[in-house]
Amino acid sequence: MAVQITEEQVQQAETRAVAAEEERDQAARRLELNPYSDVAAMEHSEAARSAAQLRANAREVRAAYERQVEEERRRVSRPVLEKAAVGEIRAADREIEGLEKGLLGAVAQAEAALVVLLDAGVTYNAGVVRHAQALAAAGLDRRGGESGGEETSLGEHLLKVKGREFRRVDPGSVAGWVLRRVAEERLGQFHYLVGALFSAHVTAEDQAGWLVEKASKGQ
User: C-alpha 178: how far from its chain's center?
Assistant: First the structure.
């Protein structure tokens, strides 16, 4: 249970602050009469410090008391307010459950779509590797004609089919690019997701410029 502050305690705190301020003022007058007195200077410094502390404490006690009074006022008036807003409460009760179900359904759909996207990326990569290896095994490299395949010294599989170049993509970066694109369109360019997914955006554009271009055009 929270400690209750009484009006009497507030008055006592303020009375102590006033007394300390009067003592501070008296010390200031003594110092004014004896400006070179170390004792007077020390007494004034101590009185000023005490007055400042007690005044700050009095303000805190007063503020806490006023918050307490306001909270009590709200508590007492709560039933009246709830009765007056019964229509709004019923409307919220009816609608929010449906909105919650809609959000959960959208999350499930987005998750399913994300699974499809990532799986498609994995399947695409496997196809690039398979055809690159097959063409290379047939004696066709990428440099001698319109179609061929090779594996670089870094283990990267490169494929050329009828003049078009293909290589593996990072499915996660493609998914990040899609999310960044949607976030920028629906939430604005300054939303944190737009900045957070910039690296994925750059990787997707670098690895699959053709995909980014066609997806951007809705093809």
Answer: 20
